[in-house]
Amino acid sequence: MSWKKYALAGLSMIMVVSVVNAWRDGHALAADWRTASHEPAGIAPDPATNPEPIVQVYAARAFSWRGYFGVHTWIASKRRDADSFVVYEVIGWRKYRDLPVVAVTEKEPDQRWFGAMPTILMDLRGDGLEAVIDDIEIAVAAYPHANEYTVWPGPNSNTFVAFVARNVAGLPVDLPPTAIGKDYLSNGVVAATPSGSGYQLSFMGLLGVMAAVEEGVELNLLGLTFGIDPMDLAVKLPGVGRLSPLSD
């Protein structure tokens, strides 16, 4: 078998696993955005019984065909004794209504994203988070693409979360390889990784490399991520995400 056949077989396998993962996460290709569920998934802490400050980062498969390749990510925070969460995210359709794409909303942080089940990427709790929440609010206000949105290669919802993480020392999130747009850098071609544990080189989110303690080593080709994470013994593949024997 030639290398081309091996490559085609590998890409076919990636697509099959991507579809299975998207289906498992509640993604539906033919879903109607007008009737798709936004019900809470029941995985967020209840503010009534969790008075301490909380910061979380979530991800869910993107809507429609995009969900086979990538996820939508967002940030949620709750100050001490607050009775609700504040969710920070970029929503592309707002651009077509002449609204800023950045939305800051009080709501349940674990709502399904057009039917897709969310997962928690980071969960931080404790008194020291009040200062982190202050820094998140500053970074959200400073996001340079508040009136821009491009599904691929960015800036998009994942570009936003990555930007905030890079500018908030207390938010060392390791974004999944399916967060297409996370490598779109707002200024220049070199930056710290979202986790703050390494550095990356990226040209408009289309071509780049990353090396970090948390993320491992990643290669970005046309917005798609290939990589390895030695810390978690994980392989990273486009559309699939992480494959690791240490995964739950």
Low-confidence stretches: 6-20
Tally of DSSP helical segments: 3
Strands in their spatial order, largest beta sheet: 6-7-8-9-10-11-12
Sheet with the most strands? 7 strands, antiparallel
Shape descriptor reads: globular
Tell me the total number of β-strands: 12
List the helices and strands and how they pair.
Blueprint (H helix, E strand, L loop, with lengths): L2 H22 L29 E8 L9 E8 L7 E5 L11 E5 L12 E7 L3 H14 L14 H10 L23 E3 L5 E6 L3 E6 L3 E6 L2 E6 L4 E4 L3 E3 L5
Antiparallel strand pairs: 1-2, 1-5, 2-3, 3-4, 6-7, 7-8, 8-9, 9-10, 10-11, 11-12
Could you please describe the fold and organization of this structure?
The protein is α+β, with helices and mostly antiparallel strands. The chain has one domain. It has 3 helices and 12 strands. The chain has helices spanning 3-24, 129-142, 157-166, and strands at 54-61, 71-78, 86-90, 102-106, 119-125, 190-192, 198-203, 207-212, 216-221, 224-229, 234-237, 241-243. The chain has a 7-stranded antiparallel beta sheet with strand order 6-7-8-9-10-11-12, with no helix packed on it. The chain is globular and about 45 Å long. The two termini are 35 Å apart. Mean pLDDT is 88; it is low at 6-20.
